[in-house]
Design goal:
- It is a single chain.
- This protein is of the alpha/beta class.
- The protein has a single domain (2-122), classed as Response regulator (Rossmann fold, 3-Layer(aba) Sandwich), CATH 3.40.50.
- It contains five helices and five strands.
- The protein has a five-stranded parallel beta sheet with strand order 2-1-3-4-5, with helices on both faces.
- It is globular and about 35 Å long.
Length: 123
Amino acid sequence: MKVLVIDDEQTVLMPINKRLEELGYQVCTTPDAIDGILLFDSFKPNLVIVDINMPEISGIEFINHIRIKKNESLPIIVLSGNTEDDVIKEAFKLGINDYIKKPICLDDICSRIKRLNIFFQTH
């Protein structure tokens, strides 16, 4: 499975990248959502993990691009320190599959990815 991870914090990207690669996933990371859009087209991920608060364009704008402009239904997990109800509701309205609050727990992220992977393989 190919996973695209977009987060402007290297302290988040590096451990996620390492753990997912150890589990056998092919991982592509970027600290920038604009680059994430370009990587989405070239890398063709099966899953996206994206932060909400980023410079240039937000994770919400990235999700909107994937869901509305690209009409893609692949699983999206938001990983963010943003706990504002309106932001979380907007992300779910756009069709995200999960919302994980920072600080990260790698075991939690991995188990949620596995659960989503099983779900999408059987439906």
